[in-house]
Design a protein that fits this description.
The complex is a heterodimer of chains A (about 220) and B (about 725). Chain A has about 220 residues and is mainly α. Chain A has helices spanning about 1-40, 45-60, 65-80, 85-100, 110-125, 130-150, 155-170, 175-190, 205-215. Chain A is elongated. Chain B has about 725 residues and is mainly beta. Classes of the chains: A mainly alpha (about 220), B mainly beta (about 725).
Chain lengths: ~220, ~725
């Protein structure tokens, strides 16, 4: 009787251990890949990391992070791609990844929605004249939603600042508002821990570079 | 117990350590290697991307029966069962090309699609708003495209030898009974629907889908916007009136409303008009659009428009200028449209809708008063299914109820008719490969006035021989009830018929488009009226043939976007009071347009110029023996527009048509009786004024302060 109880205890402990191992495996793999996506410099190397996120996401249906980083990687591919057809193809899948990430209960909605706005912003660049109205509207709405959920999201602030800046430049207007948002973004980035975890930490360099335009 | 546990751990350890090496190569069906493909073990993280040579290699700790999956953009996903037992596995994988939107050929014969989303569009939704001379009128902008013949005194779309009534407008798939506003005789009418309401426009100059019936020449399909994303208020102060619009956005719904007041009287007071107005046009208009997302995939759209306008003018008798007849029109227009779409399963979508149009005209000609009421109800149900990635099918049914009544106060009788049309249609599209597609359709229509069922075929295909250029061919037979003026006298007239044959070539390459099209169109059953007995019959016929070119380039010069279009038309028909087949007065052999737009950054302005040329049109001179022997001088117009954006949310818009002030003559009216010398006296039909000048200030108030009304101009 006693040994049976002990055995079951051991089994419980084993299950916990395995679950932990599984989760550790997830976290370790993800951290490695997240670092890789941040470091990738070419469309090819990004595509490789994106493929890995796709594989993890196919195996981990309850996790939002692989979808999020797959979408992020695709947006980065789009920023480096010159062929508009391919650019659109990457962004289309990125949008699907974002949509799927939103459906997952544990998702950090503020981050996911901010990335969604980034996808729309990149879509504008393919054909600004005719897509500007629709997609910049969608991008603005996404950033606003992201900030509503988490006013401290530095990525949402930084992207919003760039959007405001681009619009001001297009209309030859004042960039004050954009730069103010940019400063706010940089301040929030400073509060963020600069170490790789599953949480998104990208965008600090981009925000600082942006702010240098303001001077 | 302890040994048991120990061996358990050892077992786990071994399991964890046993690795299987998997390697291989991924190619397409032609044997070309595919770099960047994603190779994985289903349910595990293990996998790799293929390298430059299409090769991959990885190890997995998984054991037993596994599924190896390979995926890459543009190819069908691939899966293969493998058994991992520590021995290396080598595989050769051949991916099959999938039919995908980016690469696949599309049928372009006869159609111009304008949308901001599709990458392949030749004409964009924004173009409608920013084309000089179009004055933000949908038909005005489409008149710069090949296939249209400019008829300056009408403002409607005349396509490939067809008259204005042969083009039908559909909003979200639903029929619009009369898409144009009320206009004085021989003055251009404007479309009732503003371009900014729509996210997409599909303008077909022939060979259109079986879904659209009751149109002999052309279908203009307008796709209204989905749920708006930003709340905003728009104010417009115009030289001819004012408007205010508000859009309110909720989580899953939006409501937009607009009211507009147009009074052209002060403007006519300043600028001399050819027309002797008693009361210049004055109109009140309101519209509202409601959008509601239902569940995950459903979207409900409701749109309503009402317009009340009136004017009166004096028409001088041609023989005796002192004799004037007062012509007065009071037009009431109501339109409501409901459309709903939803996914019913993974592969099937459903959409349905109802539209209701009610038009009431109170017309006064001298002392005679005429009351005219035209009503239409249209309901439709469509299911769209994709049977595979290569095959799509559309099935639908619709009911159109049309009733008309006109009463002249001097007569006790009224002329009226009620027509019910029941139609069903089926269309399938099949991709043989990314380079070849075939579409076949059929439409069956039952007409209650004739108590008859008619079946019309549709067929089209497209073929892409190289990387970018593609050929399309389209054929179809189309039918349309004769005009109200005829059916109200004889309700058993047959439907008028046309057949289209179109061959088209299109090359779109990096912001440059070239397109050439040839067509032949045959008319049958056109309604004629015997000059002596006034009897109506279906013994008219005719043809139209021609070729067209289109070139658009927005790459060569930065910030400059321009297009050229040319149409050649040869047409003759016998209809109405024509004694034989002749070229009708609305047709013109040559039409040419050049449209340019340039954005000046320093001036914060977009400037546009449009030049249009139309060769002389036929008119009938009763002093000559030969019917329809006269030719008007050519028509030409140079229009200019200028949009200035002092702030992101303010636009100042100025536009002027016919800058050069050419005296365009659209035709001639002749006296009913010869004068004392036995000659029928003529009077040219001219533009109401040489130029139309418009100035407006548009202000948008919204949270983000950067939206403006540019697309609505």
């Amino acid at each position: 009787m006693k040994s049976k109880f002990r055995l079951s205890l051991v089994l419980v402990w084993l299950t916990v251990l395995f679950a932990q191992a599984e989760d550790d495996k997830y976290v370790t793999t993800m951290k490695k890949q997240i670092l890789a996506v941040y470091q990738a410099q070419t469309v090819e190397s990004l595509a490789e990391v994106v493929n890995t996120f796709d594989r993890i996401s196919a195996a981990e249906k309850e996790k939002w992070e692989p979808l999020y980083y797959a979408a992020f990687g695709r947006v980065m591919m789009a920023t480096r791609e010159t062929d508009n057809k391919k650019k659109d193809a990457y962004l289309e899948i990125a949008l699907k990844n974002v949509e799927a990430a939103k459906q997952i209960a544990s998702a950090d909605v503020s981050e996911v929605v901010a990335l969604e706005g980034f996808v729309y912003m990149m879509m504008v660049t393919v054909d600004p004249a005719s897509r500007g109205q629709l997609y910049s509207g969608k991008a603005f709405a996404a950033y606003q939603k992201a900030l509503q959920i988490n006013p401290n999201n530095p990525r949402a602030l930084s992207l919003l600042a760039q959007m405001q800046y681009g619009t001001a430049k297009f209309f030859n207007g004042s960039t004050d508002e954009a730069c103010q948002t940019g400063q706010e973004a940089v301040a929030k980035f400073k509060e963020e821990k600069d170490e790789i975890s599953l949480k998104p930490i990208w965008g600090k360099g981009m925000a600082e570079k942006f702010l240098s335009q303001c001077k | 117990m302890k040994t048991c546990l120990l061996s358990f751990f050892v077992l786990i350890q071994t399991l964890a350590l046993a690795q299987t090496k998997i390697s291989g190569i991924v190619t397409d069906e032609k044997g070309e290697v595919i770099p960047g493909a994603n190779v994985s073990i289903v349910g595990a993280y293990d996998g790799a991307s293929t390298n430059e040579e299409g090769k991959f290699q990885f190890t997995t700790q998984e054991k037993g029966a596994l599924v190896l999956a390979v995926s890459f953009i543009g190819y069908k996903p691939f899966q293969q069962n493998i058994t991992a037992n520590g021995n290396p596995i080598q595989v050769t994988i051949i991916l099959k090309e999938s039919i995908n939107e980016l690469e696949a050929v599309v049928i372009t014969a006869g159609s111009f699609n304008a949308s901001d989303e599709s990458r392949r569009t030749v004409f964009k939704a924004l173009d409608i708003a920013t084309t000089a001379g179009a004055t933000a009128d949908i038909a005005g902008a489409l008149n710069t495209l090949p296939g249209t013949q400019k008829v300056g005194e009408s403002g409607r779309l005349f396509v490939r030898g067809g008259d204005g009534t042969e083009t039908r407008t559909f909003i979200d798939g639903m029929l619009v009974l009369d898409a144009y506003g009320a206009a004085a005789p021989n003055t251009p009418s404007r479309g009732r629907f503003l371009p900014f309401m729509f996210k997409g426009t599909s303008f077909s100059t022939g060979g259109y889908s079986a879904e659209y019936g009751q149109a002999l020449s052309s279908a203009l399909v307008l796709d209204s916007k989905d749920t708006e994303s930003i709340s905003r208020t728009d104010i417009g102060l115009l030289s001819i009136g004012a408007d205010v619009a508000h859009t309110q956005v909720w989580n899953k719904a939006s409501l937009a409303g607009k009211i507009q007041y147009t009074n052209i009287r002060p403007y006519f007071g300043l600028i001399n008009q050819e027309i002797e107005w008693d009361k210049a046009p004055l109109s009140y208009e309101g519209s509202a659009a409601f959008r509601q997302q239902v569940g995950k995939t459903g979207l409900l759209k409701v749109f309503g428009n009402f317009n009340q306008s009136d004017f009166s003018l004096f028409e001088k008798d041609i023989l005796d200028e002192n004799q004037r007849t007062r012509f007065q029109l009071n037009n009431g227009y109501r339109y409501i449209n409901t459309a709903y779409k939803q996914a019913i399963s993974k592969n099937w979508n459903m959409r349905s809708g109802t539209s209701f149009t009610h038009i009431k005209n109170d017309i006064g000609i001298g002392e005679i008063k005429v009351d005219e009421v035209d009503k239409g109800i249209h309901t439709k149900w469509v299911a769209e299914g994709s049977l595979s990635d290569a095959a799509e099918i559309v099935l639908g049914a619709e009911w159109i109820n049309h009733s008309y009544n006109v009463k002249v106060d001097t007569s006790v009788y009224s002329l009226q008719f009620k027509e019910d049309l029941l139609a069903s249609f089926a269309e399938s599209q099949y991709y043989i490969s990314n380079n070849f597609v075939i579409k076949t359709g059929v439409r069956a229509e039952y007409n209650s006035l004739l108590n008859k069922v008619a079946v019309d075929p549709r067929f089209s295909l497209a073929f892409k021989p190289g990387k970018e250029g593609q050929f399309s061919f389209a054929y179809g037979r189309f039918r349309q009830s004769p005009r109200n003026e005829y059916v109200r006298i004889n309700s058993t007239l047959q439907q008028e018929l046309s057949s289209h044959y179109i061959l088209s070539y299109q090359l779109v390459e990096n912001s440059r488009t070239f397109r050439a099209e040839v067509y032949y169109k045959e008319y049958e059953n056109l309604v004629t009226q015997n000059q002596v007995t006034q009897r109506l019959a279906n013994d008219g016929a005719g043809y139209a043939k021609g070729f067209e070119f289109f070139w658009r380039d927005n790459r060569s010069i930065e910030r400059l976007d321009y297009w050229l279009s040319y149409s050649y038309l040869d047409t003759k028909r016998k209809q109405g009071n024509f004694p034989e087949q002749v070229m009708p007065s609305f047709a013109s052999a040559h039409n040419f347009s050049i449209v340019g737009k340039y954005y000046f950054v320093v001036l914060k302005s977009q400037v546009g110029l449009t030049y249009s040329y139309t060769s002389g049109r036929p008119y009938h001179n009763p002093n000559e023996n030969k019917f329809m022997n006269g030719r008007t001088p050519y028509y030409s117009d140079l229009s200019f527009n200028w949009s200035y954006l002092p702030k992101p949310n303010i636009i100042v818009h100025f536009s002027c048509t016919n800058v050069l002030g050419r005296d365009n003559i659209f035709g001639y009216q002749f006296s009913n009786q010869p004068n004392n010398e036995g000659i029928y006296v003529s009077r040219p039909i001219r533009q109401a004024a040489p130029r139309f000048i418009f100035l407006g200030v548009f202000i948008t108030l919204s949270k983000d302060k950067v939206n403006n009304q540019l697309p609505s101009l």
